[in-house]
């Protein structure tokens, strides 16, 4: 970029940068050129270079090396240089910097200048960045008939430039010293009349900017009215009509008009305004969302974010436009649109808005994924229309961006699945499909392993009304878990889930217990200490407590009867029979009967009930006491029990 490039051209090049690195390179080259120009003699480009440096400062880049140039330009006799110098002083200097002391004498001279415009520059700068000491030193130079701290000024007697400076000064006084608010609130009617005159006046070549009459003064007056009307009913009532007039009569197609309207919106939202006026302000921000300037779109969403909680319904009307901003090319606009979209989620729009958020998640920048997943989880937890929808939504997020979810996602989802009893079959089928499709997403694999370990029997049954069932064999399930255990993509925590699920399946399958025993024993010498400890403990369960395992003794027509040995001696034992019902109708009047040879003594305790709920939602248990000194075989229904669980008979 040439050092002599115009400000507008520099702005165009910077805004056209495709990456932050490219933007930073452009600015570094231009700043180097500006430094070189500052070191040279006056060649007529000083104000031009400082103006470019101020734009760089607005973007957040260092611009402190321009402070002394501000001092030089303020002392210049040329108005165009003095104007840029004062602007630079207001942006780059403050009362804490030594350089601010160097302009005190220049401000003193300019306050008594013959030109009203130079006077207004000095007065505006003094109000913006003047320290208490500087204000005391310059107080004798200020026309106290025009601007007075203790007495309400006569506004209509001031020319536009001095009026602008006076408004800036009084604004600073009101912000720094709340005790002056009551004094200046008496001037609200005069301020309103001045503002109405600006809004309704015709074309003025001296102060017109893009068809707006003195937008700088309008913005300053609106800002002062906002301070004076805050938490004050009387001042707010006096301003309401004016704000409505400004909102309806200001053209927003130009930047100057947008600036006035934005200040109007801020004033409406900060004072005690009428509800209709607040809706009008929100609609103005909604129009800003359609503006081609991304900066205007950004400040619009920033403002909507602040008021969405108090004016939720008004902001909700612009939901479609806000969601469209998720497709914006600018990352900062995307982030604001995401935050605002999440704030708009409610029980009424949860389904439609969540579709948009999930679509955005599939293509959003990596730096926004964690925030997006967190927001979706929070919204789903608060407004989920059903448990199935809630589970489906979280599984969709895990499948799309499982690597960017919070650590607590896995236990939270497990808790949700646990409470959704009627969806256990549906969930285990869906997670099994996800597991065999992809094992790279650790959070999804962990939940899938847990679910298979808990509800593997529902998976092996091959029956599920909620979804198309998958015909799965015991070996298929164990193959899937063993793949997770052996994969280099699996973290130690994921392997722990898979190993525990494998162990749990030993109580839910009948033909592959030895394979499970072999898998578990392998990890007894694993290099990972936690995984090794689990494997050793599980091996101990196999060796010491294998007799406590269920052996299914009856399974027909949806009814399953399980037998478990609780206590035993050489000739006697206590058995628990557990009956469950997987059909869609409850079974009533249940009776469990047993016949034993004469050599066996049988005592059946009272059952826990005589009704088995449908869909496996409950069970009936009954305790049986047996004394079998001869250890003869027993028969249940048509099934012969040749031996009880080892080490029983």
UniProtKB/TrEMBL annotation:
Pfam families documented for this protein: Adaptin_N (PF01602), Alpha_adaptinC2 (PF02883)
Stored Gene3D superfamilies: 2.60.40.1230, Leucine-rich Repeat Variant (1.25.10.10)
One cellular component term from this protein's GO annotations in UniProt: AP-1 adaptor complex
Primary localization: membrane
InterPro entries: Adaptor_Complx_Large_Subunit, AP1_complex_gsu, ARM-like, ARM-type_fold, Clathrin/coatomer_adapt-like_N, Clathrin_a/b/g-adaptin_app_Ig, Clathrin_app_Ig-like_sf, GAE_dom
GO biological process: one example: intracellular protein transport
Keyword Transport annotated: yes
Compartments (UniProt record): Cytoplasmic vesicle membrane; Endomembrane system; Golgi apparatus
Record keywords: Cytoplasmic vesicle, Golgi apparatus, Membrane, Protein transport, Transport
Membrane topology of the entry: Peripheral membrane protein
Domain GAE: start-end pairs: 546-649
Superkingdom to which the source organism belongs: Eukaryota
SUPFAM superfamilies documented for this protein: ARM repeat (SSF48371), Clathrin adaptor appendage domain (SSF49348)
Family: Belongs to the adaptor complexes large subunit family.
PANTHER family: ADAPTIN, ALPHA/GAMMA/EPSILON
Protein name according to UniProt: AP-1 complex subunit gamma
Gene responsible for this protein: AP1G2
């Amino acid at each position: 970029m040439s050092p002599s490039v115009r400000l507008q051209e520099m702005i165009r090049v910077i805004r056209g940068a495709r990456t932050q690195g490219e933007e930073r390179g452009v600015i570094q080259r231009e700043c180097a050129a500006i430094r070189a120009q500052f070191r040279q003699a006056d060649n007529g480009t000083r104000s031009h270079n400082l103006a470019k440096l101020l734009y760089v400062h607005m973007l957040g880049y260092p611009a402190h090396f321009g402070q002394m140039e501000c001092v030089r330009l303020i002392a210049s006799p040329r108005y165009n240089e003095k104007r840029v110098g004062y602007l630079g002083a207001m942006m780059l200097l403050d009362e804490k910097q030594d350089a601010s002391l160097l302009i005190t004498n220049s401000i003193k001279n300019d306050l008594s200048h013959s030109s009203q415009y130079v006077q207004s520059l000095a007065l505006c700068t003094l109000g913006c960045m003047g320290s208490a000491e500087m204000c005391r030193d310059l107080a004798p130079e200020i026309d106290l008939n025009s601007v007075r701290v203790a007495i309400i000024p006569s506004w209509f007697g001031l020319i536009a430039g001095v009026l602008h400076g006076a408004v800036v000064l009084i604004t600073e006084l009101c912000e720094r010293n709340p005790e002056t608010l009551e004094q200046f609130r008496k001037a609200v009617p005069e301020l309103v009349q001045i503002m109405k005159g600006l809004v309704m006046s015709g074309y003025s070549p001296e102060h017109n900017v893009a068809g707006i009459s003195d937008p700088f003064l309008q913005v300053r007056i609106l800002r002062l009215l906002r301070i004076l009307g805050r938490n004050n009913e009387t001042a707010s009532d006096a301003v309401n009509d004016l704000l409505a007039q400004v909102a309806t009569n200001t053209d927003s197609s130009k930047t100057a008009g947008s600036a006035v309207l934005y200040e109007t919106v801020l004033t409406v939202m900060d004072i005690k305004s009428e509800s209709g006026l607040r809706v009008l302000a929100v609609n103005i921000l909604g129009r800003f969302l359609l503006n081609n300037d991304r900066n205007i779109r950004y400040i619009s969403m920033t403002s909507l974010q602040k008021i969405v909680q108090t004016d939720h319904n008004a902001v909700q009307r612009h939901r479609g436009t806000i969601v469209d901003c998720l497709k914006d090319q600018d990352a900062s606009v995307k982030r604001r649109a995401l935050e605002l979209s999440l704030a708009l989620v409610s029980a009424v729009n949860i389904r439609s808005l969540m579709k948009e958020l999930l679509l955005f998640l599939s293509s959003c920048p990596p730096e926004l994924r964690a925030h997006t997943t967190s927001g979706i989880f929070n919204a789903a937890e608060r407004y989920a229309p059903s448990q199935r929808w809630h589970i489906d939504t979280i599984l969709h997020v895990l499948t799309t961006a499982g690597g960017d979810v919070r650590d607590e996602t896995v236990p939270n989802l497990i808790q949700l699945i646990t409470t959704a009893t009627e969806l256990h079959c549906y969930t285990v089928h869906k997670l099994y499909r996800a597991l065999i499709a992809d094992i790279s997403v650790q959070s999804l694999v962990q939940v899938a392993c847990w679910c298979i370990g808990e509800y593997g029997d529902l998976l092996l049954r091959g029956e599920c009304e909620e979804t198309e069932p998958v015909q799965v064999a015991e070996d298929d399930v164990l193959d899937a878990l063993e793949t997770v255990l052996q994969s280099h993509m699996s973290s130690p925590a994921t392997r722990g889930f898979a190993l525990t699920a494998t162990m749990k399946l030993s109580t839910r399958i009948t033909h592959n217990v030895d394979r499970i025993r072999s898998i578990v024993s392998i990890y007894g010498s694993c290099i990972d200490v936690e995984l090794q400890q689990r494997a050793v403990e599980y091996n101990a369960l196999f060796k010491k407590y294998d007799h406590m395992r269920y052996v299914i003794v009856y399974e027909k027509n949806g009814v399953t009867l399980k037998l478990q040995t609780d206590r035993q001696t050489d000739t006697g034992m206590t058995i628990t029979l557990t009956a469950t019902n997987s059909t869609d109708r409850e079974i009533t009047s249940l009776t469990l009967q047993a016949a034993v040879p004469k050599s066996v003594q049988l005592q059946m305790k009272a059952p826990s009930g005589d009704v088995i709920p449908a869909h496996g939602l409950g069970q009936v248990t009954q305790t049986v006491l047996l004394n079998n000194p001869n250890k003869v075989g027993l028969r249940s229904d048509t099934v012969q029990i040749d031996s009880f669980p080892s080490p029983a008979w």
